[in-house]
């Protein structure tokens, strides 16, 4: 099911902002291609609905859990991510924030452009496959000055196949995706779409959990992730499995050089394969920012 809406209100599914609903039913494949869902292998066609279930389950507590599991550090990483991109420095920019969830990155982009450059014309379209995550985002934006302005809009769509009629070729100056790409079934398909919708010279920027090089830090991080995060998930949301998946999916994500190559293969130019080049590690690689420019 695909639904697209703009400046939606909490009752968005019933509002006039609800624009489109399409149902598709695929027949089962006897020899399905497999992909990872955390540490499990599942048929590719099932991954999207499994991921959707995870975020349906965590949506209402997503922001709280982010703070609890990272002790608020995700906020610093997101601040670093957005300030490294300096949106608005050359004038207003048209941004698309994919897998944008509850709008954390969108809000930072708009705040940064306004606070640093008095820019009230930069726009962000938040795109996510999960309507419940977007609904949380809409709720949050209602309390901001951006709500019901052309600066922000929310759209339900799959990062791997953005509807071309809505998300046209060569349209955006900046494409951001934060903690989202590892949840997608096909990373190359996401990168291909990012390349398609960006203008030549536009920037692709990804913030994602990544690979920690330091063995001591890596061991401590593993112990923390696999014991504390699922436990917090159980205590705060009653859902251990979703948080177990989120941790496992981090370990399955390609390491920095491999992901940088995928970005180049999609047609982007990156810096050299090193920290400070094609990517910038945060906290020794616990998280990492990858950027590329559409050539
Ligand atoms: C961990 S959340 C990150 C949300 C937000 N970017 C942030 O940093 O707080 C991952 C998001 O990716 C979305 N997602 C997963 N697969 C997707 C897909 N194929 N297309 C678009 N969004 C997807 C989920 O619904 C979820 O909202």
Automatic annotation (TrEMBL):
PANTHER family: 2-METHOXY-6-POLYPRENYL-1,4-BENZOQUINOL METHYLASE, MITOCHONDRIAL, METHYLTRANSFERASE
Originating species: Marasmius crinis-equi
Protein's UniProt keywords contain Methyltransferase: yes
Keywords: Membrane, Methyltransferase, Mitochondrion, Mitochondrion inner membrane, S-adenosyl-L-methionine, Transferase, Ubiquinone biosynthesis
Top-level taxon in the UniProt lineage: Eukaryota
GO biological process terms on file: methylation
Pathway, per record: Cofactor biosynthesis; ubiquinone biosynthesis
InterPro entries on file: SAM-dependent_MTases_sf (IPR029063), UbiE/COQ5_MeTrFase (IPR004033), UbiE/COQ5_MeTrFase_CS (IPR023576)
Subcellular location: Mitochondrion inner membrane
Matches recorded under HAMAP family: MenG_UbiE_methyltr
Listed GO MF terms: 2-methoxy-6-polyprenyl-1,4-benzoquinol methyltransferase activity
Top EC class, one word: transferase
Protein name, UniProt field: 2-methoxy-6-polyprenyl-1,4-benzoquinol methylase, mitochondrial
Catalytic activity: a 2-methoxy-6-(all-trans-polyprenyl)benzene-1,4-diol + S-adenosyl-L-methionine = a 5-methoxy-2-methyl-3-(all-trans-polyprenyl)benzene-1,4-diol + S-adenosyl-L-homocysteine + H(+)
Protein EC: 2.1.1.201
Subunit annotation: Component of a multi-subunit COQ enzyme complex, composed of at least COQ3, COQ4, COQ5, COQ6, COQ7 and COQ9.
Membrane topology note: Peripheral membrane protein
Gene name linked to the record: COQ5
Binding site for S-adenosyl-L-methionine: 102, 128, 158-159
Primary subcellular site in the record, as a coarse category: mitochondrion
Reported function: Methyltransferase required for the conversion of 2-polyprenyl-6-methoxy-1,4-benzoquinol (DDMQH2) to 2-polyprenyl-3-methyl-6-methoxy-1,4-benzoquinol (DMQH2).
Claim: Amino-acid biosynthesis is one of the keywords in the record: no
PROSITE patterns documented for this protein: SAM_MT_UBIE, UBIE_2
Family recorded in the similarity comment: Belongs to the class I-like SAM-binding methyltransferase superfamily. MenG/UbiE family.
